Amino acid sequence: MKKIIFPTACVVLLAASSCEPGARYGTAYGVNYIKNVLLTGTNNGLSIWKNPSEFIVNAMIDEALPQELRDLNRTLESIGMGALVKREKQYIAEAAMLTAETARPILVNAIKEITPADAIQIATGGRNAATELLRQRTEQRLLNAIQPQVEAKLNEVGFIKTMNNALGIAGKAGSIFGTGKDQISATSPISYLAAKQMVNGLFRVVEQNEERSRTNIRQLR
Question: Which among 11, 69, 96, 148 could bridge 26 via Cys, Cβ 3.0 to 4.6 Å?
Fold first, then answer.
């Protein structure tokens, strides 16, 4: 009688060399390794959020700047308002510092919930599969949680009013944000774009840590 070995058995056999690629991820060791990689990347990203000086100069954070906000900054600089752009970056950095501990439990809880099945999916996925899984499960929740705090910070320092005045002079807000209006309301698209930059930048940091760990991750296959 032909002996049948079910694929699910591979999940619990770390030394089973005949298992499908990624099966070792499904062991407790493999799952914990992935969790630690993501947690390290998350901590690194949130450390940048908590340090406004580092946030402003970090290349990955800058690369994460949404195109609409980049266009807005270029417009302001073109009309001699580069100082306002610098203030914007400072206020966003300060907002990141204020929201870091709001974001942390969302990310940490999602990492804790990673299952053996998730781990196997990561093993057979792309080179940044772990980061992408974390992004899919947390990105919108992060934006929903931190945008109100970012908005409050920008309004607290009067930045939205100042920006309205500047864009009213330039007559550019409507074309940049597609609203047909040359003012930004108190409920500002800038707060969403700033939150988007923060979240995207954080995931770039997580992704970088995953890439650094890929050699060890591949050995779990």
Answer: 11
